[in-house]
């Protein structure tokens, strides 16, 4: 006989299939077990679409078995009407025998109410099975609802000798590549996985990046630029094209021109900017640099994860990379590069 943890791991495995497709909703997986045999499973596949419990129940060939079944779900079943009816009601309607839940939903309209509905209906309920794993799966969702700000992911590339850029001898925008070309494809996938991507004004002036997912098939994130004094206005940079939506945070100008929106933030600081992003329902932000912008997030302790790519190059001099003062939680080899991942535990 398999354990609760075994089936919950399957829920997590299923839930991951929705990554990049369900935000701002959470990723959720569901497994239905009858007498030790899986009779249905599903996951939340697309924002606005059926939830994991609905998809799993639809797989059950003999609905009569549900009254004797155990339902495993990685996140508390919803208890409110949103784009779909409450999943707690669905489980109650089918009079399932038992519900095993990975973690409680932090969203205010759920937050334990789904569990109460099941218990009040006489359904045996077990909570917090592989809780930390289930919470980590939806860390963007949890940060957004508990800290009232987007999940902030810092990313930069540095050389073996610790530089983020070479000395600039020309005012012509150019990118001084550090990582392997195949690694650059991976970073485009990372962009696809987040709601928005953020850089400072200097990065736009130095590199003229497009900040899109052009190297892969996927959605473009909202492009965010910090330009306090509107020094980029009326200039021809790629972030002002119509390939993706662009928001330029500045100190005084409110303006919209096609896909470019200038957003005035007062006072002009990161705390206020992330507050605006939360109010605009931006669940996650990938901060790609440069040095000053990344260090400002580190100094303000406004970050949740950092991905540092160490390329097999040496610049010998130039702009020093930001410093992490803790050991990485995870290290992986990518092509000729090394990926170091840090999680903010504060």
Describe this structure in words.
The protein is α/β, with parallel strands linked by helices and 346 residues long. The chain contains 10 helices and 17 strands. Helix 3 (87-93) links the parallel strand 3 and strand 4.
| Structure classification | alpha/beta
- Residues in helix, %: 25-40%
Mean pLDDT: 92
- The number of strands is 17
Question: Outline, from the CA principal axes?
Answer: elongated
Question: Which features does this protein show?
Answer:
ten-stranded mixed beta sheet, 346 residues, 26% helix, 10 helices, elongated, alpha/beta
Short description:
This protein has 346 residues and is α/β, with parallel strands linked by helices. The protein is built from 10 helices and 17 strands. It is elongated, with a radius of gyration of 23 Å.
Give me the secondary-structure topology.
Layout: H1 4-15, E1 29-34, E2 37-43, H2 52-59, E3 70-75, H3 87-93, E4 98-103, H4 113-120, E5 124-127, H5 131-137, H6 139-146, E6 151-158, E7 163-165, H7 181-193, E8 196-200, H8 201-207, E9 222-226, E10 246-250, E11 255-257, E12 260-264, H9 270-279, E13 284-289, H10 291-299, E14 305-310, E15 319-320, E16 330-334, E17 337-343
Parallel strand pairs: 3-4, 4-5, 6-13, 6-14, 8-9, 8-13, 9-10, 10-12
Antiparallel strand pairs: 1-2, 1-3, 7-15, 11-12, 14-17, 16-17
